[in-house]
Write a structure and sequence with these properties.
Elements (H helix, E strand, L loop, with lengths): L5 E2 L3 E7 L5 E11 L6 E5 L6 H11 L3 E3 L2 E3 L12
Parallel strand pairs: 4-5
Antiparallel strand pairs: 1-2, 2-3, 3-4, 5-6
């Protein structure tokens, strides 16, 4: 898992590997997402990111991420692992 430095206001800038091997810095904000089992934390962005690239980000940083309204969890993890 990579180190994450949070900025004021609960946001973080992550390096995301995009198609073609190019890295892009994208701002994610930490949000609490309600679920039937209780709220859990995830990183959210308004940017357009394909689901396969979201999966790479989730696995690299070990946190759930959401873009385009789609949430992706690291392999072997569920929302219960990130309960607040």
């Amino acid at each position: 898992m990579a180190d994450i430095d949070f900025k004021a206001g609960g946001s973080v800038i992550l390096r995301v590997k995009r198609a073609g091997g190019i890295y892009q810095r994208i701002v994610f904000r930490m949000v609490a997402e309600p679920s039937p089992g209780g709220a859990y934390k995830l990183l959210d962005t308004d940017r357009q990111i394909p689901i396969n690239e979201l999966a790479l980000v989730a696995n690299e940083y070990g946190l759930p991420v959401r873009a385009n309204g789609i949430s992706v969890f690291p392999e072997g993890k569920t929302s219960k692992d990130f309960m607040i």
